[in-house]
């Protein structure tokens, strides 16, 4: 039997500065994981990923990452995705220093 | 230092213009990422975890003060005010914006630098002994040869699409500070019976997924034959190397699968074919390069008060004893400037620190700086009499840490704090080890020790050749660290052995502390370093220290 589908978000890097971005319900890109659209349906996830990948003038390397619902919006599961929501641990650079803004 | 020719200048400028146009076409949507990716990689531009990263080549780890100032300016203007020096003697900028990269590359070209062939399946930046031209144990400065290889391999039409990347390391000294046995090709200068300098050619070394110590393919190669011989090796590899499986595509696997004898036979046959085409050219070009590589004129000096200054200043004494290596000219020393202040990121230097180093190089070290594969900077030609002044200036810039060769002088790759390939973090483990043992006050007592940390199997942090190697992995969604013991990066190159199951992130530092306390208890005297105690005793007592619960179970 195929493994049950677990919820996902579509994530990528912004073309111009490489910052991590997430696809929102309005089909825009957000810098904040909490604003991501949580995809619970496998077919919809596949379609959203295709749409995202087609936005080649805005993002690079779109993929589906596991996520779960949280009190403030979707939360990452894997530690790599947790690091991507904040930046490196040796300096306060990346998202942890940036103010949130849309692409 | 090598002085760019008009040809070098024109080549680099042309590539910079070409890449500017490519970036423009990517941004306006004319190029897809699939089309752009190989182009950006050919110019050293990666997309990492949080941002782009520009990897700049520092040929054979040598920088002029002007170049280091250029890097400082680039870091400040287009990045976050620092650069990361890597285990391949390169520098990486971690936060460039795509749109700025063409300007960064122009600024690099202004100081005769570039990012060409710092990625992709090509011959990468040639690395060399960071003490080259200064070391007391050297036959000859290997850098003119390294420059010859750089010119030969840059844009070499036959070698732009090799089965996999290709790394060459070179040393002219007896002590191997360039890890030549862990390169695709390692070159160690040796003399023939008549005393003429040539090279022992080592092939098929490498770390990564399948760590292998290189094998000698030619015990002695005359200098004039070097280029046709290198070309023969790379061309045989280009044909034999496995393109069907990325994990088996490096030359180490080609050598391993075909055997060194078959490889040697094919290389020698190819060499005979290619040699006539290089007749006299290598020698002529090398002579021209040597002409563009003036040797600093140094005359023997006295120590002028250094001994007295050391007695008066314990910090200076400890710095001189730990960070200064004998120079070929009496009265001079090679100063290794640690980029491993306790708690700092190994290999990082701020723009201010780079400028301070450039100023020191101009005033005290013939305008030259080196980058070591151990991620430190070197002032290669400092008068011993100037050491108190140099030390005071380094101290003012947070660069006087006296820990070279000690526990906290750790190699660490960027790991999952930056790298898209990483499976776990490396930097915080290095930071934690350095501060923990400083706080315990055990670093000096433990003495000479090489700890090397990689955040994935690709082993940029050289963990296999660390006395203690730490490899960060992803075990079922949790960071997990495997410890290897007994590796060696020198002329006695050895791959460390895994001694047991991995440790969780929080367990690594306590495990290393148990290991090193066991060493302190077991060593014959303070003059027996960790690696020698390990060789004398074998892994068992150290394994028992790492896994005390298991030892109790075994005893029960």
List keywords for this structure.
heterodimer, A: 103 residues, alpha+beta, 2 helices, 5 strands, 20% helix, B: 556 residues, Sulfite Reductase Hemoprotein, domain 2, Sulfite Reductase Hemoprotein, domain 1, 4 domains, six-stranded mixed β-sheet, five-stranded antiparallel β-sheet
In short:
Chain A has 2 helices and 5 strands; from the N terminus they run E-E-E-H-E-E-H. Chain A is an alpha+beta fold and 103 residues long.
Question: How does this structure look, described?
Answer:
- The complex is a heterodimer of chains A (103) and B (556).
- Chain A contains two helices and five strands.
- Chain A is of the alpha+beta class.
- Chain A has one domain.
- Chain A has a five-stranded antiparallel beta sheet with strand order 3-2-1-4-5.
- The longest helix of chain A is centred in the middle third of the chain and has 13 residues.
- Chain B has 556 residues and is an alpha+beta fold.
- Chain B folds into four domains: 105 residues, Sulfite Reductase Hemoprotein, domain 2 (Alpha-Beta Complex); 150 residues, 2-Layer Sandwich (Sulfite Reductase Hemoprotein, domain 1); 91 residues, Sulfite Reductase Hemoprotein, domain 2; 141 residues, Sulfite Reductase Hemoprotein, domain 1 (2-Layer Sandwich), CATH 3.30.413.
- Chain B contains 19 helices and 21 strands.
- The longest helix of chain B has 22 residues.
- Chain B is globular.
- Chain B starts with 5 loop residues before the first helix and ends with a helix.
- The chains are: A alpha+beta (103), B alpha+beta (556).
- The interface between A and B is medium-sized, with 25 and 30 residues.
